[in-house]
From TrEMBL:
HAMAP family: FabH. GO terms for cellular component: cytoplasm. This is Beta-ketoacyl-[acyl-carrier-protein] synthase III. Keywords: Acyltransferase, Cytoplasm, Fatty acid biosynthesis, Fatty acid metabolism, Lipid biosynthesis, Lipid metabolism, Multifunctional enzyme, Transferase. Residues 250-254 are annotated as: ACP-binding. It is found in: Cytoplasm. It comes from the Bacteria. GO terms for molecular function: 3-oxoacyl-[acyl-carrier-protein] synthase activity; beta-ketoacyl-acyl-carrier-protein synthase III activity. Its main location: cytoplasm.
């Protein structure tokens, strides 16, 4: 039996920080409301396209695994905010990394994109199509944000996380997952005006309109992630109390707490970084796992449960058996271009 061990991990957070107080200068909101209703304190705003964040995160994951770019056989890029639809975004990462031997594909399932990408890469390694892969979850959601709508503008941020996966004979990496979608509710979380169906120049003409039924999304997020977790646990014959760490999608602290309660798992088994980044959509779960490893929360052979949720409305849960290594084998010298603007300057129209 072949498994897909995660042997490299990396993240890239753009440096410009948008605080709750910054948002209060633009919108009728305040730090107290955002903190108590969501758990968020600040988020990042990117000064570069999503492929640049993804390339830096991928280069860090490669260095962490002690691999060269030319070793890579597959790049899967999970996102909703691709710089362009054709050519795909994974090919841009291939070019920037110099990973000339890699096949390249994009995956879009909104906030769960990084986790769905992890499933695709794991399956392709397990089935022998490739021996290794880079998986990326990256998002520059600030480019499609309606900065006049307080219902959504306070909730999101930009970032990227990446993993290097390689074939392994030991049981490790993703050992079970459950994926699904509440397609009948797809309209309750949508960016209207974006895509070929709508006016071609909606982005340019500032005609994007977010449909966002927060309370309905909240309920579906909890039920989707709960059922995905239950299915994964049943499939792998593991009890919730055997889980060492839950690394969930970070859309709202109250969603995370409700889910943990349903799973009967204490808060100290749940990794939380929502206060630093808000919801980075496809990048959220990957960055959270990278930070959980960096902070020593993931130990050799840990069982890690990763529930996620996003537009679609897609939901998922992945059960990971971590391998032996939790330290990096190397560091990358690939860096983002410097940023000379504040987050508020970056989101203000020219
Ligand atoms: C969006 C969300 C934080 C809103 O929290 P909530 O407790 O449901 O808040 P409500 O929508 O009921 O709004 C409560 C009040 O706060 C107000 N409010 C909404 N956004 C606000 C903001 N940014 N600042 C201040 N007040 C705000 C509302 O207008 C409402 O006022 P009213 O009572 O006078 O009508 C919450 O529903 C949520 O997290 N939903 C899921 C979102 C999600 O997960 N999205 C991503 C999926 S990947």
């Amino acid at each position: 039996m072949r498994y897909a061990n995660i042997t490299g991990w990396g993240k890239c957070l753009p440096p410009a920080i948008l605080s709750n107080d910054d948002l209060a200068t633009l919108l009728d909101t305040n730090d107290e409301w955002i903190t108590t209703r969501t758990g968020m304190k600040e988020r990042r705003i990117s000064h570069v396209p999503v492929s640049s964040l993804a390339t830096v995160a991928a280069a860090r994951a490669l260095a962490c695994a002690g691999k060269q770019a030319t070793d890579v056989e597959l790049i899967i890029f999970g996102s909703t905010t691709f710089d362009e639809m054709c050519p795909n975004a994974a090919s841009n990462v291939q070019k920037q990394l110099g990973a000339a031997n890699a096949a390249c594909m994009d995956v879009n399932t909104a906030c769960t994109s990084g986790m769905y990408a992890l499933t695709v890469a794991t399956a392709m390694i397990k089935s022998g199509v490739v021996n290794n892969a880079i998986v990326i979850g990256a998002e520059v959601i600030s480019t499609v944000m309606d900065w006049s709508n307080r219902n959504v503008a306070v909730l999101f941020g930009d970032g990227a996380g990446a993993f290097y996966l390689q074939a392994d004979a030991q049981e490790c990496g993703v050992i079970a997952e459950s994926l699904g979608c509440y397609g009948e509710s797809r309209e309750i979380l949508a960016v209207n005006g974006w895509g070929l169906k709508e006016a071609k120049n909606a982005v340019i003409n500032n005609q994007l309109h977010w449909a966002f039924e927060g309370q309905e999304i909240f309920k579906k997020a909890v039920s989707g992630m709960d059922q995905a977790c239950q299915k994964v646990l049943a499939k792998s014959e593991i009890n919730a109390d055997q889980i060492d760490l839950v690394v969930p999608h970070q859309a709202n602290l109250r969603i995370i707490d409700t889910l943990a309660k349903r799973l009967k798992l204490p808060r100290d088994k749940v990794f939380i970084n929502i206060q630093r980044y808000g919801n980075m959509s496809a990048a959220t779960a990957p960055v959270a796992l990278v930070e959980a490893i960096e902070e020593g929360r993931v130990k050799p052979n840990s069982l890690v449960l990763m529930p996620a949720f996003g537009g679609g409305l897609t939901w998922s849960a992945h059960l990971l058996r971590w391998g032996e290594r939790t330290h990096s084998l190397g560091e990358s010298d690939v860096e983002l271009a410097p940023c000379n603007k504040t987050a508020l300057e970056l989101i203000r129209p020219n």
